[in-house]
């Protein structure tokens, strides 16, 4: 007997994202690219879970996200820095430590797309995506690790000396025509994350990644902002709904917490099953 996929989504209800357990009280989280999309939701989620938050950004406003953090009763500080610039990342960590005393959680989230077919892709498009998405995470992970190793475990807030969370993508495993720079950066993040997890684990630093699928953010508006685009997108999502930024924030809070203390060196996909290759539900 074969089970046909339901013609309509069976359940588009969303979880109550505000019911966030207070898992991160007394900790400080630095989130890069935190004034829009997934980064913004992660920053607010960290505050909801009890952490003070550094909101890194490069362009645009930070008022909304800082207000949202304060509305959760936490401190929020915006720091402008280009994550692909070594001196700016170093200065950002200095300022973070000067402001909060230390940092416990770093979510290396900032990322962008510059899409082109291979034969049209310029060197600048290739470099820009690799610099921000991969080198940016390397620089933030390096500065985070320096502080975690210097400080060691703060038993009163966590059994780990620090947590690094890399924002990857389903495209760390799913090839993506027309996006070779982006897919390569995410494949690179995968191996960087695993290597750092191996290297830092003896210091009780955990390094993990999140692999979001299609999430409703400005990076992919054209994939969901018309009925036709949304329907086409749903052919790639077995769970039949687009992801919300808060779906990713939930995973980030979990990974940052001691609930995930034995999780190290893995990517948690939050993708509604996109990495289950739904094309094979009928073919193959
Ligand atoms: C990309 C989005 C895309 C999604 C699923 C993400 O990593 O940034 O543009 O919709 O992967 O393909």
What is the count of structural domains? 1
Task: Tell me the strand percentage band.
Answer: 5-15%
Largest sheet: 7 strands, parallel
CATH class placement: Alpha Beta
Strands of the biggest beta sheet: in what spatial order?
3-2-1-4-5-6-7
State Rg. 19 Å
Level-2 CATH architecture: 3-Layer(aba) Sandwich
Q: Which molecules are bound besides the chains?
A: beta-D-glucopyranose
Helix count equals: 7
The count of β-strands is 7
Order of helices and strands: EHEHEHEHEHEHHE
Assign the CATH topology. Answer: Rossmann fold
Roughly what percent helix? 25-40%
Report the mean per-residue pLDDT as an integer.
96
Question: Could you name the ranges where pLDDT drops below 50 across 5 or more consecutive residues?
Answer: none
N-to-C span: 17 Å
Provide structural commentary.
- The structure is a single chain.
- By secondary structure, the chain is an alpha/beta fold.
- It has a single domain (22-271), classed as NAD(P)-binding Rossmann-like Domain (Rossmann fold, 3-Layer(aba) Sandwich).
- Helix content is 37%, strand content 13%.
- The protein is built from seven helices and seven strands, in the order βαβαβαβαβαβααβ.
- It has helices spanning 37-48, 63-71, 86-100, 123-151, 180-200, 227-234, 245-256; strands at 28-31, 52-57, 76-80, 105-108, 162-167, 205-212, 267-270.
- The chain has a seven-stranded parallel sheet with strand order 3-2-1-4-5-6-7, with helices on both faces.
- Strand 1, helix 1 and strand 2 (52-57) form a beta-alpha-beta unit.
- Helix 1 packs parallel to helix 2 (63-71).
- The longest helix has 29 residues, at 123-151.
- The model has no long low-confidence stretch (mean pLDDT 96).
- Beta-D-glucopyranose is lined by residues 113, 169-171, 213-214, 219-220, 223.
- Beta-D-glucopyranose binds at residues 113, 169-171, 213-214, 219-220, 223.
